[in-house]
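Re: your question from the hallway

Yes, I did run it. Sequences:
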Amino acid sequence: MKTLKEVDVVLVGAGWTGGILGKELSESGLQVVCLERGGERSTADDFTVPRMRDELALAHRHSLMVDTNDQTETIRNTEQQRALPYRRLGSYLPGTGVGGASTHWNGHTWRWNNTEFKIKSMYEEKYGKKYIPQDMTIQDWGVTYEELEKYYDKFEKIAGISGKAGNLNGSKDARGNIHEAPRKNEYPLPPLEAAKMRGAISTKHPGKTNIHCRHLKKAWPVSCLKSLLSPKAITVFLDPRPMLPKPTPTPMVQNLVNANTVVTASVLDVRPMPKAVPT
Amino acid sequence: MGDISDNKPRRQFLKHTVSSAAVATAAVMGVDQAAAQAASSGPVTSTTQGALEGYLWLKPSEQGFVEALVDHLCPPDALSASGVELGLNIYFDRALGGDWGNGNRLYLKGPFVKGSANQGYQLGLTPAQLFRAGTQALMAYCKNNVGKQFDSLSSEQKENILVLMHSGKLEFDNGIPSQVYFEHLLQMFYEAMFADPIYGGNRAKAGWKMIGYPGVTANHRQNIIEFKNKPYRVEPTSIADVN
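Structure:
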């Protein structure tokens, strides 16, 4: 067996995480090797128009995703079913190759706030120690928003995130999301022009939260033909996490529209939207 | 966005020389050839389809079936020319004869067990094998039950058979599930209709023009501003236009 020269750090996977770690560690003087199971990719060759707009190859033949012949798994919905191979990618899409999930990333970066980082203790604080059943495995993350703020800030600068701060050091600005946790700095790039998403989200009353729904975290790209024909047919999927008995106050949705919204439409998905599958 | 062929002499050359089939089609449609070539929105003024004529993979009997199928699903009418004129049959041929048809990115090791609808495709057949076996079974069904080949049936008879397959009620002698076969055909039809013309179908971007799809747009950022609350209807751009 060939023995390779020892290095300081070996990273498994060259996606967002491995890529950023590799950059930071190598710039700090360490020698870093990144292992990646998929192919090499470059921005100029693989992520430029028209190649990046080849819907058949990318969205339907899944050319950026893992080949099920290299890796797949068996799936079933209930314990009574026989688990069978996931033969062709469909309901979820494991990525592969240099760039990892960043190459098919949906274009939203949301900061969490302490209602997520300290979910257990904040529920207990508000509703009492007995509120969360003993057999529920929910727990705090062990880090707080305050500890992570500077890293969020750094990441947003690396990725060039657009938006308008709604809470800049405690000072609220209704052009952004006033319910967000306080930011030390403004977004690195200004908000994108507002796209109209009729029906789901209204921009009629800027500054007011038009939709209050704790589960509405992001809008998925529209992927049904109807959306091309009628803007009213745009579908917004809700985060399918199970509801806790009482909803918390409202993370809000306004800046779906005025911050990071990217609406794409798929012309090939003319099948009706699949019905929700009970889990 | 104007007619891209204006500043692409090579394409103009191809237009005038290579595609004899396109010319023939124009004649059949009663469209003056020169007029057809001048009208970029015409269904047969293909800019790059010269090389995409003729069959590579489909057998003659399958060719007749696919042509009848795509012309049934996309009849010539006010919205578009016929499926064959849009090259949908050629899309089938190239897709089935290519990597995808050969099972690229499809896990085909056992066990092969009928699963629930949520477990997805569970047959041990490549797309090409499924097409071939399903088509054989359908041909046998037509011969035994109607006494004619699919392409000789009336529109109503074709429709009835497709509806039976769609619901899974039609049972094939060779055990191919008719519903899975039908969905396979339907998915290929959608792709033929709306995938980039570089794949053989959607000729002259007719599928895209029909629904107002702009095609390969580099970036919609400016369009979001300019066309806010206005219809966005442009001459679609295809991969070949940008290459």
